[in-house]
């Protein structure tokens, strides 16, 4: 059900939903703050298409920091009116090791991008078209009956539910124990853009600036660039260690995804030889070949879905069904099944 389908009663319906959310947050704050454990290990989407306003932000990039996740219902007009207040709350935490992330579930990327422009949303946005991330977080389906929800990523990488009526309180709770990789007080203004990129998961954006200053004649720039470079190398090694663990557990596709992410996320930095060698070895594995082909098929279907016209949607559905039939057991097949269920609604 959407506001478009209820023009006469939209404002009343959404207003009652907002009121219900407020009553819920007052009546049961303990429930709202209760941590939830995902059915599978918690993870953030790692596909670029699943993010708007930012590249994929990994848990390793956020390690030691905090994040607030705002799950929103795009059809509710009253919810749109909340954004200025949310932005003000986020602004009050500037300079602290926390990032605010919006999450929209059930809609294609194009619609999420359009909504972000309409409400001047500049936070990173997770595009959760098949509602897989929403389910992973244990969030009841966000809709006109459940118009928003709030989650937190704690410094240890775990996910917890928060009170949507108290974003500032949730942010303070999430920040407990959080810290910077490199103290901003040690970073000259000239290197602040690179520092920001490194701290919040976009190291490639700061690579050239860091590299230029590693041999700077100015001691403060050289020292800061060295610390930032070391922080990036530490992150790379942590990702490599995660891939090694995945391989030891015979999770080859997980290892391949991690190492592919390292290669794409850290462009401009020295890459360990083992990353390149292991990627080459895995790419020759038949299981990985199936996963790669399935992933490409899924990506093509997702692009057709974005077109949002009947012919494209029919073709996307056919492609997804073939994917499920031809590549059972792959990650892409599981995502395809979720997308088909959404298309059939």
Q: How is the topology of this model organized?
A:
Elements: H1 10-27, H2 29-33, E1 51-52, H3 59-62, E2 66-72, H4 77-80, H5 83-91, E3 98-105, H6 109-118, E4 125-128, H7 132-136, E5 148-153, E6 159-162, H8 167-175, H9 192-199, H10 204-213, H11 219-248, H12 252-265, H13 273-283, H14 286-307, H15 310-326, H16 331-343
Parallel strand pairs: 2-3, 3-4
Antiparallel strand pairs: 1-4, 2-5, 5-6
What is the string of helix and strand elements? HHEHEHHEHEHEEHHHHHHHHH
Straight-line N-to-C gap: 11 Å
Beta-strand residue fraction: 5-15%
Sheet with the most strands, sense and barrel status: 6 strands, mixed
The CATH C-level name of the largest domain is Alpha Beta
The overall number of domains is: 3
The 3D shape can be described as globular
CATH homologous superfamily designation of the largest domain: Glutaredoxin
Q: Structural class of the secondary structure composition?
A: alpha/beta
Compute the gyration radius: what is it? 21 Å
CATH topology of the largest domain: Glutaredoxin
- Going by CATH, the architecture of the largest domain would be 3-Layer(aba) Sandwich
What is the percent of helical residues? 40-55%
What this model shows, in words?
This protein is an alpha/beta fold and 345 residues long. The protein has 3 domains: 3-175, Glutaredoxin; 184-284, no CATH class; 287-343. The chain has helices spanning 10-27, 29-33, 59-62, 77-80, 83-91, 109-118, 132-136, 167-175, 192-199, 204-213, 219-248, 252-265, 273-283, 286-307, 310-326, 331-343, and strands at 51-52, 66-72, 98-105, 125-128, 148-153, 159-162. A 6-stranded mixed beta sheet has the order 1-4-3-2-5-6. The longest helix has 30 residues, at 219-248. It is globular.
């Amino acid at each position: 059900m959407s506001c478009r389908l209820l023009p006469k009663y939209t404002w009343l319906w959404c207003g009652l939903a907002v009121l219900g959310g407020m009553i819920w947050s007052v009546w049961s704050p303990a429930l709202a703050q209760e941590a939830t454990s995902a059915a599978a290990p918690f993870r953030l989407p790692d596909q670029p298409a699943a993010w708007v306003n930012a590249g994929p932000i990994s848990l390793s990039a956020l390690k030691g920091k905090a994040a607030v996740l705002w799950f929103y219902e795009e059809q509710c007009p009253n919810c749109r009116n909340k954004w200025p207040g949310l932005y003000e709350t986020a602004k009050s935490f500037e300079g602290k090791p926390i990032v605010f992330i919006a999450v929209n579930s059930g809609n294609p990327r194009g619609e999420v991008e359009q909504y972000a422009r309409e409400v001047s949303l500049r936070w990173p946005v997770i595009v959760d078209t098949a509602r897989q991330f929403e389910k992973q977080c244990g969030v009841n389906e966000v809709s006109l009956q459940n118009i928003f929800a709030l989650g937190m990523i704690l410094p240890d990488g775990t996910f917890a539910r928060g009170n949507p009526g108290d974003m500032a309180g949730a942010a303070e709770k999430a920040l407990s124990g959080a810290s910077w990789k490199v103290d901003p007080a040690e970073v000259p203004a000239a290197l602040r853009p690179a520092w920001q990129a490194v701290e919040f998961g976009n190291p490639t954006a700061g690579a050239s600036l860091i590299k230029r200053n590693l041999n700077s004649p100015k001691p403060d720039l050289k020292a800061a660039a060295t610390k930032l470079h070391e922080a990036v190398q530490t992150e790379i090694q942590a990702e490599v260690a995660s891939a090694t663990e995945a391989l030891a557990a015979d999770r080859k596709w997980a290892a391949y995804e991690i190492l592919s992410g390292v290669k794409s996320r850290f462009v401009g930095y020295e890459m360990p030889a083992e990353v390149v060698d292991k990627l080459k070895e895995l790419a020759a594995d038949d299981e990985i070949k199936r996963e790669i082909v399935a992933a490409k098929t899924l990506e093509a279907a997702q692009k057709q879905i974005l077109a949002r016209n009947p012919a494209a949607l029919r073709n996307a559905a056919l492609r997804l069904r073939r994917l499920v039939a031809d590549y059972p057991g792959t990650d892409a097949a599981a995502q395809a099944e979720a997308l088909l269920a959404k298309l059939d609604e």
